[in-house]
Amino acid sequence: MENGCLLNFLRQRSRTLPESWLLSMCQDVCEGMDYLEGHSFIHRDLAARNCLVSEHNVVKVSDFGMTRYVLDNQYTSSIGAKFPVKWSPPEVLHYSKYSSKSDIWSYGVVMWEIFSEGRTPFENRSNVDVVTDITRGIRLYRPQRASQPLYAIMYRCWHEVLNILYFNILTVPCFCTFYKEMHDIFLLFFFSSTITSPFLLRWWCRSLMVGHLSLNCWRKSENWQKIKTSTHILLYRWTPNCLFIVVMNVNIFYSVFVNKYFYKALLKCSCYIFYLMHISCGYIRTMK
């Protein structure tokens, strides 16, 4: 790809990347991993060095040399197999047990790499020390550029799925859940910042395409059978959208009459119109 691997991209542009770029990169990786998870693939080597950046700065997951297709959502590697220690959860370190939840742990480390702009996780620790630290519950610190909500997502990625007697894969959320949470964080970022980056516009266009959840993630939800009825669709789709409309109106009014940010208000008005068109079309499409 044109801009090479994500790790070098981050290091070469250290201290120059706005938070909107970093947010967008995290969601790009999450979107790719959600696709793999939905097709029963386990990557097993997710890291910034194994992601590529396109000409338009879109991040793509790559390097599928260790990827495995699994039917029961678990894979046990052979004895002596190599794996990236600093990106691996306890169940991999101790029992060589892989699942999509192992990829989620690695994804949390990738988020940490992105917001630390290419630093190496546990950079001053040997692999043996890292295994000991992770087993004792020690986790990576919050990067300076990561907000508390974003670090909370990282930390949830590092929740242990290892019980004393058996491997429990039900204690960590799926990628589509993290995808939605980062989308919500972006909306907060959108309201509180001036739009100067094309990454924010790309984030917004993506939200117009997928709504609060992509259609595939929505159908995989355990509440899908409830949501299918028209009453639940109204509550699920229109309640947050109505709240959004109220907040947007107040935000535009404040930008124009208080801060005099006319260009900012114009951009938000444009996004506002597209959003109204989106939710109207989305409701009609869902009812079908």
From TrEMBL:
Single GO biological process annotation from the record: cell development
GO MF annotations in UniProt: ATP binding; protein tyrosine kinase activity
PANTHER family noted in UniProt: TYROSINE-PROTEIN KINASE (PTHR24418)
Membrane-spanning ranges: 161-179, 185-205, 234-255, 261-284
Domain of life assignment: Eukaryota
Coiled-coil parts of chain: none
Localization of this protein: Endomembrane system
Keywords assigned by UniProt, alphabetized: ATP-binding, Kinase, Lipoprotein, Membrane, Myristate, Nucleotide-binding, Transferase, Transmembrane, Transmembrane helix, Tyrosine-protein kinase
One Gene Ontology CC term in the entry: endomembrane system
SUPFAM superfamilies named among the record's database cross-references: Protein kinase-like (PK-like)
A family per Pfam: PK_Tyr_Ser-Thr
Organism placement in taxonomy: Eukaryota, Metazoa, Chordata, Craniata, Vertebrata
InterPro entries: Kinase-like_dom_sf, Non-receptor_tyrosine_kinases, Prot_kinase_dom, Ser-Thr/Tyr_kinase_cat_dom, Tyr_kinase_AS, Tyr_kinase_cat_dom
Protein name: TXK tyrosine kinase
Species assigned in the record: Pundamilia nyererei
